[in-house]
Amino acid sequence: KSSFPQYTLNQVQEHCSKENRIWVTYKEGVYDITDFIESHPGGDIILTAAGNAIDSFWSLYEVHKQPQILELLEKYRIGNLSKEESLQNTADLSDPYIDEPKRNFPFIVNSEKPFNAEPALPFLMKNFITPSEIFYVRNHLPVPLVEIEDYKLEITGLGVNETKLSLDDLKTKFPKVSVIATIQCAGNRRSEMSEVKPVKGLNWNAGAIGNAVWSGARLQDVLKFCGLQNIANINHIQFEGLDTDATNAPYGASIPIEKFLNSYSDVILAYEMNGEPLSRDHGFPVRVIVPGVVGARNVKWLSRIVLSENESPSHWQQNDYKGFSPSVDWDTVDFKSSIAIQELPVISAICEPVNNQKVKLQNGKLIVSGYAWSGGGSKIIRIDLTADKGLKWHTAKIIHQENANPGRCWSWVLWKAEIDIDKSSTNKVEIWAKATDSNYNVQPESFANIWNLRGVLGNAYHRIKVYISD
Ligand code: MTE
Ligand code: MO
Predict the structure, then answer these.
(1) Which one of 63, 152, 177, 249 is CB 3.0 to 4.6 Å from 164, fit for a cystine?
(2) 119: Cβ below 6 Å to ligand 1?
(3) Of 16, 26, 185, 218, which residue is the catalytic one?
């Protein structure tokens, strides 16, 4: 290692693009990770550390700091910093998570920094409207600290007069509308998919979903106020959050213009969740709610809306949250070859009992309950369960469902089923659940055939095992 050349921090900082090669430092070491990025598609999020101490990347994404990664990094070592510079290099890194909100919820925490957590399933289905305190949280970055006096939402791009609105403007200049909508993360139920083969992503159980009352201004009203009349050349509406990565790029996403034009699509700029101001974790002061569309496009801490010919350039629109064939792996994936997830496919999950639970029968029947939902406003028309791998199917009773036409059903349904169990043969029973939506789309049977490297769109039959006790 002493044979390596010595570089200065200034020299490292000059190498922050693919053209100039990408260097990072870790402690005393200087690394050229250009080839690493080339051979690890999707690994480009590490670019946020380009020309800098990689600690800045790890302090944002703790999950990536693993011994294998440190070992891998050594392969790319090209030099050293001086002792003096290496000390100054890491010493002044403050924790970007210093301003996180206080949290005291019985969550299953999948990651502390950034904070990602979901409720236990029996909790989740106690209410049709999920209480904000147990609504799953999916943050990619530190939660921004917003001073409400300084908050302005900027609206810009094609067809609008550049406009800045305060929270008060949003509340007073536009009618307040409320929409009950389910929001679900594309990675919900990822843990089941990863049993087939490992995937990259947070290990969500089936709790990365919730149903809430969102209130705010209709996006159509706001854009009309900003002078929008002619939508020629506008293909996408981009949203940016106030949360930024180490290169100062904001979290961002976009939705196709069609979603906005349809007056039944209920896209709103929400400042309330369940009748109260949004909490910091859920996007205070304003987030966009795009009913029927994957959580990732429901941008929190909304700071800018850009009407554009193009989709959001953000990492999360371009190089993440896309589906691929089970045969595509990290060596072959081409993120450009697939489209960004928008409306989600039909899904259901059994919430009670939970997997591997010991249960008692009631008059020879097993009581099972759960949720079902479909993206794009499709209506859930049926949930079928089997306790004998499909020989006999039992249709669940829907115990709570919104009264709306297909195309505008934004809420999940909660259901309950009573299944006859023949326990003469064995006390171990496997229960499967599958939902059907108003397009007659049905959940796929197995995770094996929908496996994808990022572990998204995990909507196969939900299967649990229970043990019948006397
Ligand atoms: N918006 C911003 N600004 N930053 C984020 O990290 N996460 C997205 C979306 N909006 C995110 C965001 C993802 S992936 C999901 S699933 C939902 O917010 C989660 O919303 P929730 O935390 O309120 O449940
Ligand atoms: Mo998500």
Answers:
(1) 152
(2) no
(3) 185
